[in-house]
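Today's session is about reading a structure prediction critically. Students often jump straight to the picture, but the first step is always the sequence itself: look for stretches that repeat, for charged clusters, for runs of hydrophobic residues. Only then move on to the predicted structure, which in these notes is written as discrete structure tokens rather than atom positions. Here is the chain we will use throughout the hour.
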Amino acid sequence: MATRASRPLGVVTRGTTNPNRLRRVDNWIVDTCADALRSAPDPLVVDLGYGATPVTAVELRARLAAGARPDVRVVGLEIDPVRVATAQPAADPPGLTFARGGFELAGLRPTLVRAFNVLRQYDESEVADAWATITGRMAPGGLLVEGTCDELGRLGGWVLLDADGPRSLTLSARLATLDSPAELAERLPKALIHRNVPGEPVHDLIRALDDAWRAAAGYAPFGPRQRWLHAIAALRSQGWPIQNRPRHWRLGQLTIPWSTIAPTHPPSG
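Below is the predicted structure for this chain, in token form.
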């Protein structure tokens, strides 16, 4: 059970959510973070800031139970007590509860935290402290997945962090509806979204990906997946250290070390 904090850290989010909005990141979490959950003494996961309805927390628990560990426990945390009360009827499956809490994680020590579309409304200067607060309260070896996506989950970007800080950036697109990889710039995590300007590494990445996509236009008749695969291959040939495997690329994903695209200057504010 969650331990109630005297004052949850953070502010109430807008709360916008939709069924399957976080399917792409959830599937990535199952694939990438399953080992951490399987080896954890307590497979506790926090869905931080799940929104006005609990649907994404319900989905997260179901996906982790099916793909990572059947006895996973998911706690959905929200600062707004009305949202917590509204979510309680959804806590029917074993291993799913809801509580009031924020960046302090309500006293919990989870192995995994998903915080999606939470920091988007904060100032960039507040991100590092939020990351440190969350990761400092996780269980040893714990992981944080923090990012943002559009309303339907077609475009997204997220950072994987541990106690030492950010490890990687993942960009994700539903290829069937992708016009240009430049669209991903609008869904960069808060730590990067204002850095899509000349002179910043993430701007170079987005530009290189968009250029490679346009150069691969000849593969468009074979479908957007083939065009994307050839664009990723072009990025690798240019020396970008893409981490994930071809099966991830086929899903419209690209993961790159944080050190490659980390901001070059401290945030203002």
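Discussion point for the tutorial: The domain at 23-153 is CATH 3.40.50.150 (Rossmann fold).
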